[in-house]
Specification:
Helix content is 38%, strand content 16%. It is of the alpha/beta class. The chain folds into two domains: 251 residues, Aldehyde Dehydrogenase, Chain A, domain 1 (3-Layer(aba) Sandwich), CATH 3.40.605; 187 residues, Aldehyde Dehydrogenase, Chain A, domain 2 (3-Layer(aba) Sandwich). The longest helix has 22 residues. The structure holds nicotinamide-adenine-dinucleotide.
């Protein structure tokens, strides 16, 4: 191991205000709920006070979105709407460094990821859907928008999730009220400033901050036509119940427990990189994380030896340091959940190994960890840990791999590592997962649809398919 000199990104580019209001009808306004604090998870510093939207604030936001929909946005031609989306995309690129630094400060993710993945993907989504705005009649889903979309997103990819929700909605002619997660509200509020800078008509995008109660008020508001939710399966089920019997259109992007399957003929070093990327990217706070490694028995010892050697080189620490591979856990609550499930893993008899890294004294940290000797019955093989923890199981034959991979209530993603194209195709046919990656993992592109099976939710985001969620169907 060699020493790195720290290479911290400056936070001077970001102007964090002491307090933030709600973004309603094109302006920042006070909330009528009790303000809450957002914290830097890398050092527990309070970053700002953020307004909590009450039911009345949510109602004001939905009314603003309805007005903007009826009077302006749904009347505008697709080509005109596209100009706004392109403008937003270009401002995102211009202010990319600011967005990336703020995302890393509020979320805890390494700057390398926010700079090279989250922010480019945010801009790419707006560019991509801007291109659709004047071509909806070729989408196959009609060209009539639904109206007002109520959108609720989680904390693991605050900007990326915002883009997945807002870009297609606006391109199709809907207006939106979006609620970011309570631990990561700041970049959504910076995005609100970008909407102002782009001269987006007031009310087309509204941002209401707050926790579960604010989200509940939004999804159950009677004047919301479309609910789009990304988050846990538990809350997704509650939302499905809340909107049942209404004519709201719903998409749910929920949890996952992906199998990353390594066959004996796979290029092992490449597979090890894919395993590391699959579970330690974004501290494992990834719905499609490859959290279950299924490795063929004949190469299990070799894969584990190389994996541990690679894990020992991961640099855990300051998210703003450009050398950092694994940043901070997003919140004290999430850290407690990861610790609890890891202890359960040990008590159920799995063998735990953690990378020998020094963790910072303050903030929320968890060393990259792997459990071997895991069986299907263990909770760490069944439940989403949503942290940097990998459970390893072995298999002998492709059919055993399929059976183990599918033995989960989730069905979001899977990875297959093998030299044989025929095996990739047959695995992809048998795996019950919305996305199957072959000899790679966690690859995303705005042109490609993403979504789940079973308890991972329904509906697709991204690509042409992502338009379906925001249009009324074939024009008659
Ligand atoms: P969460 O379900 O606790 O919260 C998600 C959002 O829902 C937050 O904004 C929260 O305030 C809000 N919320 C909470 N209760 C609500 C209610 N009753 N009604 C409406 N809104 C409510 O999830 P989380 O802990 O923030 O995120 C982690 C989860 O998100 C994981 O399970 C992960 O797999 C999932 N996720 C899925 C995808 C995907 O595309 N499938 C992507 C990212 C994250």
């Amino acid at each position: 191991m060699f020493e790195y000199a720290p290479a911290p990104e400056s936070r001077a580019i970001v102007d964090i205000k002491p307090s933030y209001g709600l973004f309603i009808d094109g302006e920042f306004v006070d909330g009528s709920g009790t303000a809450f604090k957002t914290v830097n998870p890398a050092n527990e510093e309070v970053l700002a006070e953020v307004a909590e939207a009450s039911d009345a604030d949510v109602d004001a936001a939905v009314r603003a979105a309805r007005r903007a929909y009826t009077r302006v946005w749904s009347r505008m031609s697709g080509a005109e709407r596209a100009k706004y989306l392109y403008r937003i995309a270009r401002i995102i690129q211009e202010r990319g460094r600011e967005l990336a630094v703020l995302e890393s400060i509020d979320n805890g993710k390494p700057i390398r990821e926010s700079r090279d993945v989250d922010v480019p993907s945010l801009a790419a989504h707006f560019f991509y859907y801007a291109g659709w705005a004047d071509k909806l009649k070729y989408s196959g889903y009609g060209s009539t928008p639904l109206g007002v979309a109520g959108q609720v997103i989680p904390w693991n990819f605050p900007l990326m999730m915002l883009a997945w929700k807002i870009a297609p909605a606006l391109a199709c002619g809907n207006t939106v009220v979006l609620k970011p997660a309570e631990t990561t509200p700041l970049t959504a509020l910076l995005f609100a400033e970008i909407c102002q800078q782009a001269d987006l008509p007031p009310g087309v995008v509204n941002i209401v901050t707050g926790a579960g109660d604010t989200g509940r008020a939004l999804v159950s508001h009677p004047d919301v036509d479309k609910v789009a939710f990304t988050g846990s399966t538990e809350v997704g089920k509650a939302i499905a119940r809340a909107v049942a019997g209404t004519d709201k259109k719903v998409t749910l992007e929920l949890g996952g427990k992906a199998a990353n399957i390594v066959f004996e003929d796979a290029p092992i070093d490449q597979a090890v990189e894919g395993i590391v990327n699959g579970i330690f990217f974004n501290q494992g706070h990834v719905c499609c994380a490859g959290s279950r490694l299924l490795v063929q028995e004949s190469v299990a010892d070799e894969v584990m030896a190389r994996l541990k050697r690679r894990m020992a080189t991961l640099r855990v620490g300051d998210p703003l340091d450009k050398n950092t591979d694994v940043g901070a856990i997003n919140s004290a609550e999430q850290l407690a959940k990861i610790r609890e499930l890891s202890e359960v893993g040990e008590s159920e008899g799995a063998e735990r190994w953690s990378a020998p890294c020094e963790l910072p004294a303050h903030g929320y940290w968890f060393a990259p960890t792997v459990f071997t000797g895991v069986t299907q019955a263990h909770r760490i093989a069944r439940e989403e840990i949503f942290g940097p923890v990998l459970s390893v199981l072995t298999f002998r034959t492709p059919s055993e791999a399929v059976e183990k991979a599918n033995n989960t209530p989730f069905g979001l993603s899977a990875g297959v590592w093998t030299d044989k194209g025929s095996l990739i195709l047959s695995m992809a046919n048998h795996l019950r997962a919305g996305v199957v990656w072959a000899n790679t993992f966690n690859k995303f592109d705005p042109t490609s649809p993403f979504g789940g099976y079973k308890e991972s939710g329904y509906g697709r985001e991204g690509g042409r398919h992502g338009l379906e969620a925001y249009l009324k169907g074939e024009d008659s």
